[in-house]
Amino acid sequence: MVNPIEILLVEDSPTDAKLTIRSLEKSNIANRITHLLDGAIALDYLFCEGIYKDRDHATDPRVVLLDIKLPKVHGLGSLLRLRHAPTTRPRQRLQPIGRDPLRSFPTTGNPALLTQG
């Protein structure tokens, strides 16, 4: 039996989120997609803090699709915290995506794909 793939989508644009979710669902890529609107909420979710304090780390998403231009906590700020936290750093890897993957990080405006390694 295949393990379910859970994806966390952090995107503040409703249009972009809807298109991403539709594409993932049509491709049967994810069993569950969680959509959050800003970097602060995403960090709370990933670190089981704030309103997500009772969430079990065992249900961590296998893939995080993270927009760089986010309200509250910028996408790059979120990436830095994830990369430096002992609970997420060893199992996370960053794969920039965009028109020019080599330039999409550190410039703003392009999305980044963060996956478990």
Keywords:
Rossmann fold, globular, alpha/beta, 26% helix
Task: List the SSEs and their pairings.
Blueprint: E1 6-10, H1 14-26, E2 32-36, H2 39-46, E3 63-66, H3 75-84, E4 92-96, E5 112-116
Parallel strand pairs: 1-2, 1-3
Antiparallel strand pairs: 3-5, 4-5
Helix pairs in contact: 2-3
Total count of strands? 5
Helical content class = 25-40%
The appropriate CATH architecture is 3-Layer(aba) Sandwich
Question: Mean pLDDT across all residues, rounded?
Answer: 76
Indicate the low-confidence ranges by residue numbers. Answer: 97-111
Provide the structure class. Answer: alpha/beta
From the spread of the alpha carbons, the general shape counts as: globular
The total tally of domains equals 1
Specify the number of helices: 3
The biggest sheet, with number of strands, parallel, antiparallel or mixed sense and barrel status, is: 5 strands, mixed
Helix-strand pattern, N to C?
EHEHEHEE
* Superfamily (CATH H level) name: Response regulator
- Percent strand equals 15-25%
Radius of gyration: 14 Å
Q: What would the CATH topology be? A: Rossmann fold
Name the CATH class.
Answer: Alpha Beta
Q: Please list the strands of the largest sheet in the order they lie side by side.
A: 2-1-3-5-4
End-to-end separation in angstroms reads: 21 Å
Structure write-up:
The chain has 117 residues and is an alpha/beta fold. The protein has one domain (6-116): Response regulator (Rossmann fold). It contains three helices and five strands, in the order βαβαβαββ. The model is unreliable at 97-111 (pLDDT under 50).
